[in-house]
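Good morning,

Attaching, inline, the backbone tokens for the sequence recovery test we're adding to the shared suite. The designed sequence is right after.
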């Protein structure tokens, strides 16, 4: 099956909640931000601005990678790019493999609507491995992206009917790209999270930014299970909930020199605030934004993201933090199930109260 029709199927399957994790959660329910009854500033004075990958954002929110390379991607990405530009947020493109492989341009050329927004490119690890750096550099240049995300999606590839269950040479590929590409390389999962050990290997390879894309939101094994025939469909059912919960992934990466984006089951600004309290620099939202766009187009996506940002602001105010960057040191209570993911010798960044 061609990547074109695969992307259409992905968009269709993600239109509802049938592709959510079934039993596993993000574990953000294990994090409580501690209320401050005496916030000594006005709600409007909370500073939400931050920087990600060297670029300023009005708030730490990324519209996570979803689409490109199919005709309908043009309308979706142009709307999302306009929203990102207007609200000072970031937008990640979906996989650019269709552009590399057959020149499909839909939804990838957005600089006319988002001249200054942080835009992230995207290719899979196997594609990155099998493509000369010069071609990837041209892709980055032509689409004007500020960084290239490389998605590592082993579980998804294994269940995908036409998947590539062979990621040999992945780390060498990342080392090559870090050394040769003119923009930062962001390593990204697609719903199974990144562990401490993987984080350490990435740091050793020169990677300085990741998107943990953890478990608890959209299950990409689930998406592929729904596309697969027997017997792979049953395998996908078995592994539907595979992966490291998003909050656990942040906890695992604590203390490593990695700028972290927390994607995977972040559906509102309170969950986003918890992710920042656990050390994330920004959060990413994929399927919830797609749903908001499907329901209300550009305005729908815009008001949904504005709500997330407003909730983030309120979470800062109610925890007595003056800015989004201070949220990383605020008081949190972390439940037992999340505590189990804490790496010995790498305590959480936030000041913990109890456990
Ligand atoms: C419709 C759709 C398409 C996606 N396509 C890509 C992709 O091309 N590349 C990628 O790295 N991640 C892709 N993702 C994964 C998301 O970026 C994200 O990691 C994952 O869905 C978890 O976030 P969520 O729970 O907010 O959906 C896609 C997600 C959705 C919903």
């Amino acid at each position: 099956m061609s990547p074109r029709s695969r992307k259409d199927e992905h968009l269709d399957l993600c239109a509802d909640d049938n592709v959510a994790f079934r039993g596993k959660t993000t574990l953000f329910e294990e994090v409580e931000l501690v209320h401050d009854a005496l916030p000594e500033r006005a709600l409007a004075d909370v500073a939400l601005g931050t920087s990600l990958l060297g670029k300023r954002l009005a708030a730490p929110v990324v519209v996570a990678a979803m689409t490109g390379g199919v005709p309908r991607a043009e309308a979706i990405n142009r709307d999302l790019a306009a929203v990102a530009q207007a609200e000072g947020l970031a937008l990640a493109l979906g996989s650019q493999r269709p552009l590399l492989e057959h020149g499909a341009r839909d939804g990838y050329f957005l600089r006319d609507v988002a001249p200054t927004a942080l835009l992230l490119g995207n290719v899979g690890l196997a594609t990155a491995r099998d493509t000369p750096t010069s071609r990837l550099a041209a892709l980055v240049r032509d689409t004007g992206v500020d960084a290239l995300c490389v998605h590592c999606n082993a579980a998804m590839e294994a269940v995908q009917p036409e998947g590539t269950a062979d990621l040999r040479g992945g780390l060498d590929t990342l080392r090559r790209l870090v050394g040769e590409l003119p923009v930062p390389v962001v390593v990204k999962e697609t719903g199974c999270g990144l562990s401490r050990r993987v984080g350490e290997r990435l740091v050793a390879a020169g990677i300085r930014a990741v998107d943990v894309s953890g478990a608890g939101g959209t299950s990409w094994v689930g998406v592929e299970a729904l596309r697969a025939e027997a017997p792979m469909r049953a395998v996908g059912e078995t592994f539907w909930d595979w992966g490291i919960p998003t909050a656990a992934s942040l906890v695992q990466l604590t203390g490593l020199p990695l700028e972290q984006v927390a994607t995977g089951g972040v559906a509102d600004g309170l969950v986003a605030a918890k992710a920042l309290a656990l050390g994330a620099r920004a959060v990413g939202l994929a399927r919830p934004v797609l749903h908001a766009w499907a329901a209300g187009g550009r305005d729908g996506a815009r008001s949904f993201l504005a709500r997330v940002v407003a909730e983030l602001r309120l979470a800062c105010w109610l925890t007595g933090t003056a800015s989004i960057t201070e949220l990383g040191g605020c008081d949190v209570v972390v439940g037992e199930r999340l505590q189990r993911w804490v790496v010995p010798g790498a305590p959480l960044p936030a000041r913990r109260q109890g456990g």
